[in-house]
Design goal:
alpha/beta, Multidrug-efflux Transporter Regulator, Chain: A, Domain 2, two-stranded antiparallel sheet, 13 helices, elongated
């Protein structure tokens, strides 16, 4: 997997297991059970087959309580606190000190509640303090890693996915605007694209941003292009590198057709490939390079920059 931001299809669920609550709130299942019995903080429902489950209201309440408890509010006090007061206290957690200490929990809670004001405020606070790069590395990528695990378990809903994805996309696009007129090192260029059924716009933006920060030329063609369209782009732009992500099984045939077409070219660009299906092309060593995650890609791009920087000075 390239980035923790990869979005996965899942079934939208209306109920949660105790394992889901543990994943979403960071509270151990054992602790949740103790809080249920001792303080009646939440009360699980049961299916007709007597299986315990929890609702969205339970999740929101527990997430709020977990955040306030981490701020030093005792569970015994929270157990008797009206829901409105709990929500009011959580809404006040916007200070820089609290943000630095509990950023992931606060951001996760904002996502669960679809609170774009709080989410944006928290992200902007860290950007103002540390800059975009450190915010990306220390806050957003760990957050997306956490959310990825939630998506895989089906704990997050489609609305949560779209909510966080769109806000982070806007932040990256704002950052990309700073590099629109920058000078590039040498003549190496990257052409980014997505096979038909891949939904990797956020990942593509991450990659484009990193390439631009290394002062290299990048062209992002998005998705929904035929292989023949890519060949047209290659003939026009003459990129040295192509980049895409192959997570979906349907992408295998697409990439196979592209690899065959590249084999007919006299000087084909190198195809940088990542994703769950990428290893199926690991033996295509002539002009395919499978990158094992972001660190591998990062090192490759930095090496290209160093080579091009040296070539540009020659």
């Amino acid at each position: 997997m390239l980035y923790p931001a990869v979005l996965y299809p899942y079934t939208v669920l209306a109920i949660y297991s105790i394992a889901d609550l543990e994943m979403l709130t960071g509270i151990k299942a054992h602790t949740i059970r103790i809080w249920e019995k001792r303080y009646a903080l939440i009360t699980p429902k049961r299916t007709h087959t007597n299986i315990r489950y929890y609702t969205d209201d339970d999740l929101r309440r527990l997430a709020n309580i977990a955040l306030l408890n981490q701020q030093g509010v005792k569970i015994s006090l929270l157990s008797g606190m009206p829901a409105q007061e709990i929500e009011s206290r959580v809404a006040d957690i916007n200070s820089v000190e609290v943000f630095n200490r509990d950023a992931l929990d606060a951001l996760t809670l904002s996502i669960l509640q679809l609170n774009d004001k709080n989410f944006t405020h928290l992200v902007n606070t860290n950007i103002n303090q540390l800059g975009f790069d450190q915010t990306l590395e220390q806050i957003l990528m760990p957050l997306l890693d956490k959310l990825n695990a939630m998506w895989l378990t089906g704990s997050f809903k489609k609305v949560h996915e779209e909510f966080v994805s769109r806000i982070i996309k806007k932040k990256i696009i704002q950052e990309l605007r700073k590099f629109e007129t920058q000078e590039v090192a040498g003549d190496a260029s990257f052409l980014l694209f997505q096979p038909h059924e891949e939904k990797q716009e956020l990942n593509q933006l991450f990659v484009e941003l990193f390439i631009r920060k290394n002062h290299l030329k990048v062209i992002d063609l998005g998705g929904d292009l035929l292989v023949s369209d890519l060949l047209d782009a290659i003939q026009i732009a003459r990129p040295k590198f192509l980049f895409t992500i192959a997570h979906e099984k349907s992408s295998v045939d697409y990439i196979s057709d592209l690899v065959s077409a590249l084999g007919e070219l006299n000087d084909p660009p190198i195809l940088l490939l990542t994703g769950y299906c990428a290893n199926q092309f690991a033996d295509q060593t002539r002009f395919v390079r499978v990158t094992e995650g972001f660190e591998d890609l990062e090192k490759f791009i930095q090496a290209v920059r160093e080579m091009n920087g040296a070539a540009g000075k020659a």
